[in-house]
Amino acid sequence: MTYSPVTKDYHPDLIVEQAANGWRIVRLNRPKSLHALDESIVSALLAVFQDFHHDDNVKAIWLDSTTPKAFCAGGDVRKLRHLVINGDVDVANQFFEQEYALDALLHNYAKPVLVWGEGYVMGGGLGLFMAAPFRLVTPYSRLAMPEINIGLYPDVGATRFLADRGAIGLFTGLTGSIMTSAGAYGIGWATHICDAHRDKVLDKMVNIDWGHYPAGDFRAIDDTLNSMHRPVGPGPLQNSLDVIQSVCRGVIFEQDYESIIGLSDARSDWLRQASENLQKGSPVTAALTWLLWQWGKQDHSWTEVFELERQISDWKIRHPDFVEGVRARLVDKDLAPAWQRGTDLSLKGILAEHPPVTDIQSWNDLLKHYGVLA
Q1: Residue ranges per domain, the chain?
Q2: What architecture is domain 4-369?
Q3: Which helix or strand (DSSP H or E) is residue 28 part of?
């Protein structure tokens, strides 16, 4: 299938095309980096979706990438690390500001957006994915918020979408566990599983007969996708639900932390990997993730969520664990980060010396409640 390019050139790593029936196709095209996001590409995406929002000729939007290996494996954290090392923290923060503006726009978008989440959908890619009303995965999809491994934290709205999933969301955030399509669909991260080739699914979408619905109607898309949905058997997440509920109580941080690490002798490879991820991951990231999950349960708007994350991200990239975590995982690749340990493995012991204070009172109140602030 061929589609015609739109007249405006948004970014060299973005393909933006128009198709029949008011559809627009947006493709990430940075295959060497698994379509990683940087400030320039999220700014371009923001411009695309703002333009389409106000264009009456645009009825629906399909978002994917040019390769099946990944929709988007996350943000370009190596580039962010380089900026931080060079003292360009303000430039690094512009990335988060643009990324969160894009995610917030999509969460409140008036037109249908479909994301084809094939291959790796992680970090910033999962943030984009979760912001769309139609979230498609394939049997080869792998989804995760793996920030525990690099000393960042689950952002891009995960403060809310992890909290919305209860114990499963907390476990996923603390361990960075990779989810299959079965798991993603089972907890509502994905809305549909498609085993057909992408182009076949896309062809069906752009040829939807709007005749029985208003153009751009969400129900028309939902009905068409439902006809192509193919459930798959349970994955490791579904097989571990009882264990997840037992180790993630969300009451006392130390208990959850130690219970997950105690899964090192579990029969399940997936649970053992989760234990190892947390044990080897940044304690600061774990503590922050646990607290953000608590705050996310308080029914905050997306605007509030992204404002808190903007301030937390400014704090987190200045913390030594971020530069060190990216170095160990993605630069030197020695997988031996020297994390900041704190006085002990309590929230206060990990965070009190350099607490993540913001100007958001409900967050600071939470830090006081858990003893991080006096």
Answers
A1: 4-369
A2: Alpha-Beta Complex (3.90)
A3: strand 23-28
pTM higher than the cut 0.85:
yes
What are the distances in angstroms from CA 315 to CA 84, 90, 321? 12, 12, 11
User: Could you tell me which residues come within 8 angstroms of residue 371 by beta carbon, excluding any fewer than 6 positions away?
Assistant: 346, 347, 348, 352
Question: Digits of tens for pLDDT over the chain (374 positions)?
Answer: 678 989 899 999 999 999 999 999 999 999 999 999 999 999 999 999 999 999 999 999 999 999 999 999 999 999 999 999 999 999 999 999 999 999 999 999 999 999 999 999 999 999 999 999 999 999 999 999 999 999 999 999 999 999 999 999 999 999 999 999 999 999 999 999 999 999 999 999 999 988 887 766 899 999 999 999 999 999 999 999 999 999 999 999 999 999 999 999 999 999 999 999 999 999 999 999 999 999 999 999 999 999 999 999 999 999 999 999 999 999 999 999 999 989 999 999 999 999 999 999 999 999 999 999 99
